[in-house]
Amino acid sequence: MARKPQRDVEKTYTRAQFVAKLRRFADSLEQGEPFAIQIAGERVRVPARAVFTIEHERDSEGEEIEFQMKWKPEA
After folding, report:
1. Distance between CA atoms of 25 and 2, rounded to whole angstroms?
2. What's the pLDDT score for residue 3?
3. Sequence spans of domains, the chain
4. Checking CA distances to 67, which of 2, 25, 26, 29 falls within 20 to 30 Å?
5. How far apart are CA 37 and CA 55, in angstroms?
């Protein structure tokens, strides 16, 4: 399988869009199913085996909370 190019994209959503995506994500987690999301034109599939973290950052410019899903490609 060809390697995908590196990518670092940040997408802004309205509150309603963000809530809908979180709700779909939570439903997928509860059911032990993979989660698929389209971000800036690319469809990304998060496998059920992903590791989930919450990160909090603070500096002089403000604060940030990131909900992260990490996984490695299957061999």
Report:
1. 27
2. 78
3. 15-70
4. 2
5. 20
Instruction: Kindly state the tokens that stand for 47.
Output: 């496998």
3-state secondary structure the chain: CCCCCCCCCCCCCCHHHHHHHHHHHHHHHHHCCCEEEEECCEEEEECCCCEEEEEEEEECCEEEEEEEEECCCCC
DSSP-assigned beta bridge partners for residue 65: 56
Phi/psi at 66 (5° precision): -120, 130
Decide if 51 contacts 57 (C-beta within 8 A). no
Query: Which tokens go with 51?
Result: 């590791």
The model's pTM is: 0.74
